Amino acid sequence: MKIYFLSGLGADKTVFQFLDTPYYEPVFIDWMPPCQNESLPAYAKRLQESFIPNDSIVIGLSFGGMLATEMAKLHPTLKTILISSAKTSKEIPGFYQLGKYLPIHQAAPGALHKWFMLRSKWLFGLKDPASIDIYETLIKNSDPVFNRWAINALLNWNNSVVPDNLVHIHGTHDKILPYKNVCCNYTIKKGEHLMVMDKAGEVSTIIRQVLKEKFSLPNAFS
User: Fold this and answer.
1) Is the keyword Hydrolase in the record (predicted)?
2) What is the architecture of the domain spanning 2-221?
3) 3 state DSSP class of 171
């Protein structure tokens, strides 16, 4: 059984390396270059059509979860799990909207964005030295052109539809997308934004539970 993974903004497949995956085959989707002024829904549609079959299981982390939401809206046969993400624009903190009117991210050089992200790692809740090293490597290797587009696409995302084929896992201590703003199906106590790394055991257990109970895939565990 294959499960398709979409990472967060500025991240890649390495953020998922701590998950327990012996009962399925993980497929990590790399980002495609965005088209000029491409919307988040349009990019999600193009990414899904290129790499993900319509009846697949998709797990999206943070920004990847927003893309997965748009995919789930298009294809009711998709089984979608969001981790540390938002299903609708209302679940994104209102103060982020300042970026629409003060688009500093559009003018700031990539080096400045990386500098800021490296000095803001406390927002992601990472405490383990190995996780911190992975995070710093990800930021240093991230694509500033893609990041700039993704931030703009996120700020202009206006989704209000929550598809039925979606399950949301969120942590109570998430500083990037605060728990109080979201309505999730599964809660991880003291989980922060990158709990997929430092609480990978709990996240893995819930994923397995969702596949078996919510998505009715008992054969995955034989």
Assistant:
1) yes
2) 3-Layer(aba) Sandwich (3.40)
3) strand
